[in-house]
Structure formats: C-alpha cells, structure tokens
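Supplementary Methods S3. Input chains for the assembly prediction are listed below.
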Amino acid sequence: MLGFDTFEPAAALWLCLAASVWCVGYGLRNWNNKGYEAKPRKQED
Amino acid sequence: MISKVIAILLYLAVVMYLGYKGWKTTQRPTDYMLAGRRMSPWVMALSYGATFVSTSAIVGFGGAAGLFGFPLLWLTFLTIFVGVFIAMVGFGKRTRRMGLSLNSHTFPELLGRRYRSSFIQRFAGGIIFLFIPIYAAAVLIGISRILEISLGVPYEAALVFMTLLLAAYVITGGLKAVMYTDAFQALIMGMMMLMLLGGTYYMLGGVTEAHSTLASMAHLMPSKLQLGGMEGWTQGARFGTPLWLVIYTTIVYGVGIGVLAQPQLAVRFMTVHSDRELNRAVLVGGIFIPIMTGVAFTVGALSNAVFMEKFGKISIAMAAGNMDKIIPLYIEKIMPPWFAGLFLLGMFAAAMSTLSSQYHVGGTSLSRDIWENIKGREASVAASRFGVAATVLAALIWAWVLPPSVIARATAFFFGLCAASFLPAYLLGLYWKRMTKGAAVISMVGGFATSMFWLLFVHLKEAKVIGLSKALFGVDSLASLAPKGSAMWLMQWVDPNVIALPVAMLLAVGAAYATQTMQREHVELCFENIR
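Predicted structure tokens for the full assembly:
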C-alpha cells in the first residue's frame, strides 16, 4: 500500500507506474517500425 | 539572487540561439506551420510533453493537489495512458497520414478538408483563436507569479517581460523554433522535477513514511473542505459530494480526456516523417509525462506534511488561501536556495514551452484557418506571423483581467471546450468512413453550444464569475434552483465536459445516419494512406 491508509491512492500510483512501463515497452518493441509508406497526394507549398 | 540571474541569462541565451536556428531554417509555410514535417522523434516527444505540461500543470494542478491530495494521481494515469499512448498510437498515426493525404497545415485545416467544409475550418480556427489566449493567459499568470515571488519582480512587469521574450522567437521562428526550444526546456524541467521529488521524500523520511505521515493528517483538513466532502489528502473526497465532482469531473476527466483534442498537441503528429517517430515518441512521452505531472501532484499533496512539520500550517493556510501560490511558496520556503534558482529555470522552461505553442497554434488558426480561408489565399509565412502577434497580444490582455487561483481552472476550461467541440468530429473523421460533413457541423456546434451554456448558466465557478446567469435569472447557477441535495442541484459542480462531450458524440453519430453521405472518391482520398 506504499504507506497509504486507503486503496485508492495506492491503486492510482501503481497504475501510473504500469502505464509508464507499458509505453516504454511499446516504444522499444516498435522502435524501428516505420509502418507502410504514406505519400502526399500533391506537392507541398 | 546573482546566481539566479546568471542562470536565467544563460538559459535565455540557449533559448534565443535555438529560436535563431528555427528562424534560419524556416522558409516555406510548411516549415513555419509544421516544422517541415521532418522533426526527430526526441524533439517531437519532448516538445509534445513540454507543451502538454506547463506551469498550469505544475503550479496550478500541483497547487490543486496541495488542496485535494493524492486523488489527482488519477489525472497522471490518464495523462500517460490517454495523453501519450492513445493520443500517439490511436490518433497520431492516422492524423499524420490523413494530414499528408489532404496536405493539411493545421488541425482545423485537417478537419475542414476531411469534411470538405470551409465552415468547419473557420469555426474550429475561430474557437482556437478566441479561447486559447485564455489558456495562455493562465500559463502567463503562473510564471509571472513565480517571478514575483522568487525575484521580487512586479507582477505586471513580469507579464510584459515574458510576453516580449516569447514573441521574439515564436513570431520569427515558427514551429521549428517552438519545438527546438520546447525540447531543451523539457530536459531542464525533467531534471528539476526529479530533484524536487527526491528532496521531498528525503525530507519526510522516505516514500512509505511520507505517505503515512500525510495519511495521519486527515483531521487537519480545513472544515470548509470537509463540508464540501473532503476526508483527507490521501483519503480523497466522499462520492457524489461537491468536491468529489470538482476533482473527478473537472480536473481528472476534463483534462485527462480533453488532451485528445488539443490542437496545439494534435498538430505535432503532422511534424514527423513516419510512424517510427511516433512509436519512439511513445517511449519518451511515457517517461517524461509521469516525471512531470506525477511529481507535481505528489509533491503538491506532500507539501502539507512538510509545511506542517516546518511551520505548523497546512499548504493552503501557508498560501493564504490562494492555491496557485502553494508550489512557488514550497520552493521558496522549503527547498535550499540553490534549488530555488534551478527550479525557477524549470518553471521558466515549463511556461515558455507551453506559451510558445499556444501562441503558434492561435496565430496559425487566425491566419491559415480564418484569414487565408476566407480570402482563398495560399499559405504564407507573413500572415502566420501576424496571427501569432495578435494571439500574443490577446493573451497579455486576458492575463491582466483574469482573477487569482485561475490557473488550473482555465486549463481545464480550454481542454473541456476543445473536447466537446472537436473530439467527436476528429475521432470519427479518422476512423469512420460513414461520418458526414453535416454530422461534423452539428456535433461541433452542438458540443460548443452545450459547453458554453453549461459554463454560463450551470457550472458555478465560471457562471458566478461571469455573472450572466445572475443578471438574467437572479441566481449564480440555474442548478441552485433545484431542491438542495438533489442530483439536479449537484449539477452546479459537474464539469461542462461531462455533459457536452456525450451530447456532441450522440449528435455526431445520430446526424451521420440522417445526413447525406460524403462523395466516395473524397473519402477514399482521405483514407488512401490508412490501411
């Protein structure tokens, strides 16, 4: 519970950490993934 | 004092150099409005994070955490999962691809071209240009208050100084100058926040000890807040009470969801070359955002324990009732003098990175989405510069007239307004080929109107300050006419977005089935880069 006396703040803190780890994992897994090539329809400017 | 001034001068020298670099490489309108569509993932992600998180989040919401405590961490969770992951993966990739297909330079232009509607582009541009100066003013107030407290600079002089400084590089260097300086500022902010968190936990004897100290202080919660439903800084507010509604509907939901339709953030998705940059940006944002919002909210809540230990008062008492002063006071009174100087730099960075982006997006809305759209002209750098200058001036005027304790509220107001007006049309435009021009117009106008009605006549905080409800109906909020304690009576504390966003979404979906479908060739063009 990380010193909290109620469940809510502890859950929020753990979820923040989990979301951060999720983003890092996603970034690493797709580090070089460019996706399929997207082309502009017309010349810019 | 001398060390603070030297640090600020060094910092400003780097910012001006980066601004100059942006100006040197800006020739075409695409450079000015979209940084040439060639920005690196690091710069993009740090710029996105620094724009997203400003003095509003650190001073305003950090101060709100000083009042309401740890429940604000739910907002941190949403800023990471929704603000980074959903935004970049779910919205960012399609925004970039559709923006390329439609050769869009701004967020309103993307919406306008997706729906083949000049009205949509002008309407969206108008909302941004009219209302982003209020959000910018809140940020400007935040940094000017810090300058006033830390350096003794008169508040009005600080407002003017910051405005001139930012105008110098945003007007000349466009989005490249904005993003280069943002990235530099993000690094400073990250370093400061980590030091602040470490210092606070160290003073309170460690993580667990700090939390349990704050948990044991629940009885010190001011009686006025207890009456509003607060039980403690770790315990939160009782479900359904006025303060529960303020915390979860305005702060957590309003900002946490509102981030998805922020034009100054969405435009950044169009500045990178491929999905790879967005994938990498998810990693950078996933680290940077919790360091920013997570630390600000944690330290804001824990400031109560530290102030109590050192001065025998809780934070809001120390700040004489103005929650915008809690974080600046904490830095000045609690942290060592050398850190106060460094933190001042971090706050400078946070404010400038957000302000520069707000000025830029407001300016391009005026020039590209309103002026050039009405006149039928091609994009031009000169018109964009004029638009940015007008936005800078409007923000300065708002900063002069807005009341105190307004930072967090003005941020939530803009986030909410954008979500209600833009999110359904933006989301469905990216994902649903059946979405129509008529449905987008109805949803945007309906979402905006509902949001404004709620702000002017129902949501007590704004309705009371604006006074229109009182003038027309004799009450600060129409909801106060309902029996006390009833669900309708509680509506005066429910954020406009809780009502306006679902209304806008229902209008969009319903109208899409009732209005004429869009030409198939045009829809295919919009989705040609999306498989």
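The mean pLDDT of chain A is 87. Helices of chain A lie at 7-29.
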